[in-house]
Amino acid sequence: MNRLFKPYLQNGGTYKGGKTLSELGTDRKIYKLSSNEHPVGPSPKAVAAVKKAANNFHFYPDRNGARLQTALSDFYKNEIPAGQFFTGNSGSEILDFIIRGFLGEGLEAIICNPAFGIYNMFSGWQGATVKDVPLLAPNFGLDVDGILNAITDKTRVIFLTSPNNPTGSYVPRADLEKLLDHVPKHLVVVLDEVYYRFSDAPDFVTAMEYVKKGHQIIAVNSFSKTYGLAALRIGYGYSTPEIAEYLLMYNRPFLLNQLSIEAGIAALSDEEFVQETVTMVQSERTKIYAALEQMDVTHWKSQGNFILIKPSMEATTFTEAMLKEGIMVRPVANFGAPGCIRVTIGTPEANAAYLAALKKVLTVTA
Ligand SMILES: Cc1ncc(COP(=O)(O)O)c(C=O)c1O
């Protein structure tokens, strides 16, 4: 192997995400329920801000994300100051900053499969070893003791996701607190909260109160989901003053483009839009459970804008059959959930089309 190249970057570990509609290359009406996108469209306030910003493309953007950091602090009612937020081009880039900041050759990360594939991939790109402490059957609960037992002197990052992609499960307050009370100081707990607005469990928690208490925890967040800005690639994290200051080293000049900055600030003020989105997703989620139960399709209750199902047929065959019916869904074997399919909650119209297609596909093959 050529010594010029880092061996761990040559493992072919590229992310195999869901296809875009243009990649499908069809004029047919397709309901895209494969990438957990917003069911309707982008935040109107963000769109207006982007249009306005387009007149100033000849100028460089703000040198740093300071205005967005301040808007984030305001959004969180100044619970922590602007300097404890850090911004980037998507939640994925925030994860990349964390992984580059804390992991490398000879160091270890812990993930809990089924999990978002990026944790494993980006950690591998830094030469780190990734240990899996799988979520527990039957409902994908966190194995807190298993995680604590897997920690070594080399562990630097524990990745938690709440609500979790692709299972829809979440990390209850008691589990998070038990973990935070027992982890050593040489590691950070990452709490990926990109779906947090869709949750309604009474013991659901975000990282905020633990950051305020000084625990070594980092929240990861995104504008892709609730604000409908996936194409713009905007994300943020927040943590303790010490960790935020450390990660802000990656805040290179002009990191965010002006569209992202303006869209992000405007989206944070578009609470009405978020409320409408969340109300729709939560009420559709309940309706879909009822239909899945009626059709006797194995599924798990979700705190996110998606529901994991396990159809009674092979996952790839099922996915193709659904696509023929105009519904794009996502097999998630590569997330550690073989045989399972993740289906995004769409508009009432899209969900009705999904359920009709599901019935047809499962009946025809029964
Ligand atoms: C759990 C989780 N974290 C982070 C992200 C990254 O979101 P983005 O890079 O679009 O901000 C996603 C996207 O699907 C996700 O599911």
Give the structure's gist in a few sentences.
It contains 13 helices and 13 strands.
Small-molecule binders: pyridoxal-5'-phosphate
CATH topology of the largest domain: Aspartate Aminotransferase, domain 2
Helix and strand succession?
Answer: HEHHEHEHEHEHEHEEHHHEEHEEEH
Q: Summarize the biggest pleated sheet.
A: 7 strands, mixed
Percent range for helical residues? Answer: 25-40%
CATH superfamily label of the largest domain: Type I PLP-dependent aspartate aminotransferase-like (Major domain)
Extract low-pLDDT stretches: none
Instruction: Tell me the number of helical segments per DSSP (H or I, 4 or more residues long).
Output: 13
Q: Regarding CATH, which class of the largest domain? A: Alpha Beta
CATH architecture of the largest domain: 3-Layer(aba) Sandwich
Structurally, the number of domains stands at: 2
Question: What is the terminal-to-terminal distance?
Answer: 50 Å
Number of strands: 13
Describe what you observe in this structure.
There is one protein chain. The protein has two domains: 13-42 and 272-365, Aspartate Aminotransferase, domain 1, CATH 3.90.1150.10; 44-269, Aspartate Aminotransferase, domain 2 (3-Layer(aba) Sandwich), CATH 3.40.640.10. Helices cover 37% and strands 14% of the residues. Helix 2 packs antiparallel against helix 10 and helix 4 (91-102) packs across helix 5. It is globular. It has helices at residues 21-24, 44-53, 66-75, 91-102, 118-125, 144-150, 173-182, 208-212, 241-247, 258-268, 271-294, 315-324, 348-365; strands spanning 31-32, 85-88, 108-111, 129-132, 155-161, 188-192, 217-222, 235-238, 298-299, 306-310, 327-328, 330-331, 341-344. The chain has a seven-stranded mixed beta sheet with strand order 2-8-7-6-5-3-4, with helices on both faces. Strands 9-10-13-12 form a four-stranded antiparallel beta sheet, covered by helices on one side. It is α/β, with parallel strands linked by helices. 44% of the residues are buried. The model has no long low-confidence stretch (mean pLDDT 95). Bound molecules: pyridoxal-5'-phosphate.
